[in-house]
C-alpha cells in the first residue's frame, strides 16, 4: 500500500504535528452546520429541532439563534455547502478520460457527495417545505451540474472510453440522474435509516447503467 | 390503416349500435371514480376538492358523500382500482417470451398503467397524507408486482430473449422500477402538467435500460 493511502481525505492541518495554535478549532457557525448535517442525515431533516441541534453542538439555544434565527436559514446554509461541493465535483474532469478508472472515479465522487448530504435527497420534500426559497436554487443547481456531467461524459466518448450514440448518451445521463437521486427512497420504503451497505447497493445500481457502454480495458 | 384502428380503447358497448337498454349507463359510484381519477391526474391529487369532483360528476355533494363520506375513502377506492390492474398487468406473462416484441409489449402495458394512474406516482406523498391506511398496501403491492415482473423477466432469460447474469437481472429490475416510478417527477421539476410527449420520453428512458441485454432479432 503506497504511503499516505487511507488518509487521502485528511485535511492539511492534520499533517502538521505541532501542538498549539496551528490546530484550529472550528468556529461556532461551522460546528453548528456540521452537527446539523449529521443530525439531519441520521434522523430526517424535518424531524430534528433547533433545540436538539443546540444541545448536540454544546451551545445554548440563544447562541444558535444568534447564528441562525430560523431553521430555514440553517437548512439554506447546509444546502449552500452542498451546492458549492456539487458544482466542484460535477465539473471535475478526470485527468485522463480514457483511463479505465476515470469514469468510475468521477461517478464515485458524485455518489459519495450524495451520501454525505443524503438528507437533501432523502428528505427533499421536507427541505423545500422548511425553506421554500431553495426551490429555484435546486433547479438551477440541477441544470448546472447536469451540464457539467454531460461535458465529462462527452469527453469520455471522445476519448473512446464510453461507446454510445449522442442521443442515447442524453438518456443514459437522465437515467443515471434518476437512479442517483431516488435509489435511497427506493431502498428505504418509507423509513429513514440507511447504512454503508445501502451505499454499496446504490452504487452498484448506478455502475450497471454504464457497464454496457464502457470500452473493454486493454489487456496490458 | 386497419379497420377499427384508433378506437381500440373504446368500450364494448360502443360496438353495439342498438338504442335502448342495451347501452348501460355507468352507476354513480363508477362515474365518481372515473371523474376523480381524471381530475387527480390533471390537477394533482392533493389539490382537487370533493366539491369539484361532485360538480364534474354532475351530482350534489350530498350524493358524493353518500358514496364516499371522506376524501380518504375516495382516494382508497382509486388506489384499489390501480391495485387490481397492477397485479393483472405485472403477472401477464407474454404468450411467447422469445418473441422479439414480447418484453416491449409487457413493459408498455405496465408503463401505460402508470400513465393512466399517474396521480399515484406523481403525487404519492399527498396520497399517503390523505389516506395513511394505504401505506402498508403500497408496500405489499410493490413486493407482489416486483415478484411477478421478476418471473416474467426470468422467463425471457430462459427463452433466450434477454441475455443477462442472474445478479445483474436483479439490479436491472430495480433500476427499471426506480426509473418507472420517478421519471415523471424528474421530468416535471415541480410542476403538475405532463403530456403524451412526456409519456414517450419516459418510455424511451425505460427501453434504454433493457436495450443492451436484448438478444438481437433473428434476420428472417
UniProtKB/TrEMBL annotation, chains A, B:
PROSITE patterns registered for this protein in UniProt: HTH_TETR_2 (PS50977)
A molecular-function term among this protein's GO annotations: DNA-binding transcription factor activity
DNA-binding region(s) in UniProt: 49-68
Highest taxon listed in the record's lineage: Bacteria
Region Disordered, residue ranges: 1-22
Xref: Gene3D superfamilies: Tetracycline Repressor, domain 2
Pfam families: TetR (PF13972), TetR_N (PF00440)
Domain HTH tetR-type: 26-86
Positions with biased composition (Basic and acidic residues): 1-11
Keyword line: DNA-binding
Record protein name field: TetR family transcriptional regulator
Source organism of the structure: Methylobacterium oryzae CBMB20
